[in-house]
Design a protein that fits this description.
Layout lengths: L2 H12 L3 H8 L3 H9 L6 H13 L5
Amino acid sequence: MDCQEKIIELRKSTGMNRKEFCLYFNIPYRTVTEWELGNRHAPEYVLRLLEYYIKMEKLNE
């Protein structure tokens, strides 16, 4: 799974829209948009940290 698919999957698993996700995790909106459009790639450690945090905080539905 590439970065684009992973970030979309993680965001959707929380039930948040892009704006809510960005505000919750304090990530700039444009950064997440660029990741989701595939124009930029999030570092692997960021994806792992987001996945871990979502799991530990039980944010996934």
